[in-house]
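Long-time lurker, first post. I've been practising inverse folding by hand and with some scripts of my own, and I keep getting stuck on stretches where the structure tokens seem ambiguous. Below is the full token string for one chain I'm working on. Before anyone asks, I'm not after the true native sequence, just a reasonable design that respects the backbone. If someone could post their per-position residues I'd love to compare against what I wrote down in my notebook.
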């Protein structure tokens, strides 16, 4: 049904008349069906009454039988086929097929009444229909018509028998007065019903809106939320709770028993303590995961104040991943350290320049090849330190990354081979495979920046990869568009979803002794050169184990377009 709305002309009144009702009212529709059923029942009783009269030995009057039979047929057809849009606003077709027919039929029966049968009480039905289903004008107009019909009936009999005229007129007047009282009361009750229905509809709409807002807020919370009753049944949860608990919470049908899952038994205990002590609880617990080590979770509970409304309280449990919380705290601390390191890097520039200049001057006077080699090493490492200082300053100041000229490019395969072999020689790591298939493709990238990226990725791979041959693979290849790419794959364990979300953020690391800057700097250096870096969990081929792969898509040296 269409929701019930009130006219905006009187938004604050409690006594809005029925002629200001907009749309269909479900309450009036139910009353309409009730009145239609009552009319059919009255018509059936009137027809059966003629049968009873005949059974008692009195001949029924054919006119009355014909009227009651036609009335029964009319009421059944009206109940089956008539459409009603509340309220009845005027004396039109809706009024004629209901109230009007009843007035005509009952007036005819009253005129044709035989013996001691009195059909006057039947006029209460059209009066109630007009007062309940119609506007005030329709209700009072219908009642006035009935009162006039009763007085007219008394006048009709007065024409033939004046001895009993006064009693009939008094009875008609009293009956009309009573019907007016009944109509007023019924109309007021009908208006009250409409007000209650409108208020209920408004409250329901507000409750639905609040529920939608609450659902949206809960779903977007970074904290996990569980809603638990006093029996330990979970009635609601959010995606963050599924991520933190890591046992397939989202696939469980609600409600379910929290204590039935061993990994969540500590949470069920905290919920029971919350209900038993009627106070909030706070704990830090290790929660077992489907994969990987247990996760440290901070658990806080609150009880709803539902008992004030006469219903049971609910325990709302908030879950927070301590590692993410500590990472945010570490980020704030290291951000301040980053500002300080930028200042230190700025101060290092001048000593580095002096070292490089002194080394160059010293090399001019040296003849011994060994000494010249040493000064060359000093100059080379001073230059590398100068580049590192520039990178730290670039990240700290977040200034716009410079675009490398087209001349600064390198052939990918030889560069990757040289850098990978250099890393293997320094780290003494075994099991590294090189698959170079980029041909002679040139990419726009600085060799030192590529060194830093590759060293970071290989260091991360070596930390988690196995020791078998091929546990680490460095691959170059061309994509479908002819763009070159570099891939570093290792057979380490999969990264947790929480780690993947923050993988390239600064100061975030799954290792407590790591600063969390390695992958962040890799991403920054890639973006500086127009390249992209991504992580994917994948297998290298059919029947091969899955592993962690970091893929870099370079900016083409020829076209200058990112592939």
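-- Answer (accepted) --
I ran through it position by position. Result:
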């Amino acid at each position: 049904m269409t929701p019930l709305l009130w006219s905006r002309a009187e938004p604050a009144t409690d006594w809005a008349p029925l002629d200001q009702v907009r749309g269909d009212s479900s309450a009036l529709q139910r009353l309409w069906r009730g009145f239609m059923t009552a009319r059919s029942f009255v018509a059936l009783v009137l027809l059966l009454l003629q049968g009873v009269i005949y059974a008692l030995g009195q001949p029924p009057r054919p006119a009355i039988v014909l009227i009651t039979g036609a009335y029964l047929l009319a009421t059944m057809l009206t109940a089956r086929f008539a459409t009603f849009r509340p309220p009845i606003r005027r004396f039109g077709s809706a009024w004629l097929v209901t109230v009007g027919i009843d007035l005509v039929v009952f007036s005819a029966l009253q005129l044709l009444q035989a013996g001691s049968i009195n059909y006057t009480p039947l006029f209460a039905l059209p009066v109630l229909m007009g007062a309940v289903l119609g506007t005030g004008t329709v209700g009072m107009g219908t009642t006035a018509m009935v009162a006039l019909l009763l007085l007219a009936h008394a006048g009709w009999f007065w024409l033939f028998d004046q001895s009993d005229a006064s009693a009939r007129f008094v009875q008609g007047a009293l009956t009309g007065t009573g019907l007016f009282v009944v109509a007023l009361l019924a109309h007021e009750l009908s208006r009250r019903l409409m007000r209650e229905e409108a208020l209920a509809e408004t409250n329901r709409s507000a409750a639905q809106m609040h529920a939608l807002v609450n659902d949206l807020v809960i779903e977007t919370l970074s904290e996990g939320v569980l809603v638990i009753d006093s029996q330990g049944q979970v009635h609601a949860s959010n995606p963050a709770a599924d991520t933190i608990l890591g046992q397939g919470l989202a696939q469980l049908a609600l409600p379910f028993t929290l204590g039935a899952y061993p990994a969540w038994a500590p949470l069920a205990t905290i919920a029971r303590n919350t209900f038993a002590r009627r106070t909030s609880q706070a704990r830090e617990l290790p929660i077992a995961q489907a994969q990987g080590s247990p996760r440290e979770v901070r658990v806080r509970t609150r009880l709803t104040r539902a008992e004030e409304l006469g219903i049971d309280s609910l325990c709302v449990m908030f879950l927070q991943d301590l590692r993410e919380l500590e990472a945010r705290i570490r980020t704030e601390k290291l951000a301040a350290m980053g500002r300080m390191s930028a200042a230190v890097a700025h101060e290092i520039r001048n000593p580095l320049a002096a070292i490089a200049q002194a080394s160059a001057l010293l090399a001019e006077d040296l003849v011994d090849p060994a000494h010249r080699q040493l000064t060359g090493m000093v100059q080379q490492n001073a230059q590398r330190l100068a580049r590192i200082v520039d990178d730290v300053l670039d990240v700290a100041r977040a200034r716009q990354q410079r675009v490398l000229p087209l001349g600064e490019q390198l052939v990918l395969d030889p560069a990757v081979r040289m850098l990978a072999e250099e890393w293997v020689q320094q780290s003494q790591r075994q099991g590294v495979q090189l698959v170079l298939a980029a041909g002679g493709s040139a990419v726009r990238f600085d060799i030192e920046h590529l060194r830093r990226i590759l060293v970071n990725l290989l260091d991360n791979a070596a930390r988690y990869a196995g020791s078998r041959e091929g546990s680490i693979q460095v691959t170059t290849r061309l994509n479908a568009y002819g763009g070159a790419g570099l891939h570093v794959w290792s057979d380490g364990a999969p990264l947790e979803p929480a780690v993947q979300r923050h993988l390239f953020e600064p100061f975030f690391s799954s290792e407590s002794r790591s600063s969390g800057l390695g992958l962040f700097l890799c991403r920054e250096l890639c973006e500086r050169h127009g390249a992209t870096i991504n992580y994917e969990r994948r297998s290298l081929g059919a029947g091969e184990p899955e592993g962690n792969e970091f893929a870099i898509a370079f900016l083409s040296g020829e076209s200058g377009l990112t592939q």
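A couple of notes from the structure itself: The radius of gyration is 45 Å. The domain at 410-553 is CATH 3.30.565.10 (Heat Shock Protein 90). Happy to go over any region you disagree with.
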